[in-house]
Amino acid sequence: MATVKLFAADAYQTQFEAAVVACLPVNGQFDVILDQTCFYAEAGGQPSDAGTLGGQSVLAVEIDGDGTIRHRVAAPLSGRVTGEIDWARRLDHMEQHTGQHLLSGAFERLYDAETLSWHLGADRCTVDLEMAEFTGAQVEAIEAEVNRVIRSGLPVLFHLAETEAELSAYPLRKPPKVTEQIRVVEIQGYDWSACAGTHVSNIGELGLLKIKSWEKHKKGVRVDFLVGGRALRDYQSLDLVTREAARALSIGQMELAGWTGRAQEEISGLRKQVKLMQEKLLELEATDLVAGAHVQNGVRIVAEIWAGRPADEVRLLAAKVASVGGAVAVFGTRGAMPNLILYRSTDVRADMGTLLKEALPLIGGKGGGSPVQAQGGGSKPEGLESAMELLVRGVLGQLG
Questions:
Q1: Reading across the β-sheet that carries 125-129, which strands appear in turn?
Q2: pLDDT exceeding 90 applies to what percent of the chain?
Q3: Which of 133, 221, 325, 367 is the most exposed place for a label (fewest CB within 10 A)?
Q4: What is the pLDDT of residues 69-90, one digit of tens each?
Q5: Is the separation of the CB atoms in 128 and 134 below 8 Å?
């Protein structure tokens, strides 16, 4: 038995009374079938309503092929019951769905672009369009068009076409899959769509529609948009962020983009300066380390364990030590994940890769390298000192 759909006649009705026609157990819950309902069941890209029925939260709303609507609740219901929908959710869906009709109609009018599908998500909505590309200039044109129509305050009308002949009287953007008992939603004189969803009664209620992003999707374009309350909240959030940023920088909100570009250039320049200064400091540090190192057969062996120092910096320091000439760096970094880093000058006869391979088991590590440089990391910090001692003995042994 098809359920009488009160929302089709009045999308603004939030409360209703109905008779329970059936209450069917389903996996520990119950599907309640009513003679009439205000609850919209998910269909046509629009999610279902939420709310209460007989004092219980409605967990899901589904529609059968014959038009019967099922209301999922935790406990059985019988007799006459009162239902109430979540109005905030309903209004949001009405705004987004009507906004999609308007946006799709504008795309067809301006660019002859067919809407292939759409999605109403919890935070954003998208429409997939049959377009080869979508440019910034086109975005501005579409936004200007849809918001012009919103300001016009056109009524949103509903028609019922009982036969295919009656349906042919409406210039639908897309033909429906069925040909009888079709509900047509019209933005007066602007757009006609076969749709059973809930919509606002006047296009002016949408207030604002904003395209947030767009991207290539399959062979077309996917457009992400906000409308109504979602668009207002998004604007308020962005305005708050930009106002606070502008206040902190003592500039106007419209100056933020230019300031950001200049700041990026300055930061890039400062990073280069810092890198050059770090290189010079590491060269000086390497020179001091080599000068105070143990000498074996004319080769200076610099062995150090570093704590709280980034491994990348220690690696660069080891390379600087090796660049001095006649030197070997045997470095370790202390931490939960210890590292071993070995470098030698090109004029030193020693195999760093072989030495590292012998020491890695002491720190439970993996790694590798060449005769000139090698590095590895492990998971046993307690073995770091033993590994360093083994490496130093190995270097001394290879140097004779």
A1: 115-120, 125-129, 220-227, 209-217
A2: 79
A3: 133
A4: 999 999 999 999 999 999 999 9
A5: no
